[in-house]
Design goal:
By secondary structure, the protein is α/β, with parallel strands linked by helices. It has eleven helices and nine strands.
């Protein structure tokens, strides 16, 4: 025997909404959990995002922070007079434009046994990044160079993005004359973190600029890798740099080559362009006359020339100030 199911009404009961009081009470119970979650999320963003920016320091650096630090490692075997000339040259340029100077000794760093002291360039730059964390650029200049054009700041000479773009040597072999790896053809100035020049033999690393970024720390650590130091490159850190630039795209993508006369001119023809006024003169361009002249004798003519330029500049400044005072006094007399 089959029993039918009880008949159901086809009319649904009316829907009774929950009261607004219940919703408010429910929201209050979850509010502390929501606030705690937002606080934890903000803290995580601050720790892993805000504290490890890969960009340059703030556009408005802390008071007393210079935008450029000039780095020149000094070999303890240099004569005191030559070392003082080098320091005075850098300090004069730095004082004119509000830069800092850093003169570490090549003995300050552990370079591994049988490694040339020129490798001290790399840890010296890394040291400068730690010592001056808020600076924008490091300007490395070898101790065999003098800054000859002290009037023009680096921002006007090369560092302004538009100026840098006008100077960049693009779509050219990184290591002349026939490297298959070429510089980027459409690199923007604001994306450049590494600036140097070439001579006819390769990259001219005696004068270079590195922007203070996380990329710079990575690059310097890679350049100083024990594998490169122990490889016994013919030109030590110079050839290691050429290898890294050519075969590591993360380095080539940040590199701008500029004409040699802009940043790294020599004291005699090296096959590079001689147009324009140079920033620095490199004495190693004369080292072909090996054994005839000492480094001090190489430097003396250029040091004397720089002193003469400095005196002439001071004289012009003094004359201009005197003329200004004379004109002001004359105006006062006319008014009275």
């Amino acid at each position: 025997m089959q029993f039918p199911y009880p008949r159901k009404s086809s009319t649904a009961p009316a829907y009774t909404p929950r009261s607004s009081t219940y919703r408010r009470r429910n929201l209050r119970s979850f509010l502390p959990v929501i606030l705690v979650g937002l606080g934890v999320f903000t803290l995580i963003l601050w720790i892993f995002g805000g504290s490890s920016s890969s960009g340059p320091p703030s556009t408005h650096p802390a008071p007393g922070t210079s935008r450029v630090v000039i780095v020149t490692p000094l070999d303890p075997t240099l004569s005191p007079s030559h070392a003082n000339d080098i320091k005075e040259n850098r300090r004069d340029y730095a004082q004119r434009h509000g830069y800092d100077t850093f003169f570490p000794s090549t003995d300050d760093y552990d370079l591994m046994p049988n490694v040339p002291s020129s490798w001290a360039t790399v840890p010296a730059l890394r040291h400068a990044l730690t010592k001056y964390p808020d600076t924008h650029w490091l300007f490395y200049l070898t101790s065999t160079a003098l800054i000859m054009n002290t009037r023009e700041p680096l921002s006007d000479k090369v560092l302004t993005p538009s100026k840098l773009e006008s100077l960049m040597v693009t779509d050219t072999p990184v290591v002349p004359p026939d490297s298959v790896i070429k510089t980027f053809a459409h690199l923007k100035g604001e994306r450049v973190d590494f600036v140097l020049s070439q001579d006819r033999d390769g990259l001219a690393g005696g004068s270079l600029l590195i922007r203070n970024t996380d990329w710079a720390k990575y690059f310097l650590d890679a350049w100083f890798d024990p594998l490169y130091r122990s490889y016994n490159f013919q030109k030590a850190e110079g050839h290691a740099l050429e290898h890294i630039v050519q075969w590591h795209g993360t380095v080539l993508a940040k590199l701008a080559l500029v004409p040699q006369r802009v940043l790294n001119s020599y004291t005699r023809d090296t096959g590079a362009s001689n147009e324009g006024e140079s920033c620095c003169s490199m004495f190693q361009g004369l080292f072909a006359i090996e054994g005839e002249l000492s480094v001090d004798q190489f430097a003396n003519p250029f040091s004397s020339k720089q002193v003469s330029i400095k005196k002439a500049t001071l004289s012009q400044t003094s004359t201009a100030a005197h003329e200004t005072r004379h004109v002001t006094a004359k105006k006062r007399c006319d008014l009275s």
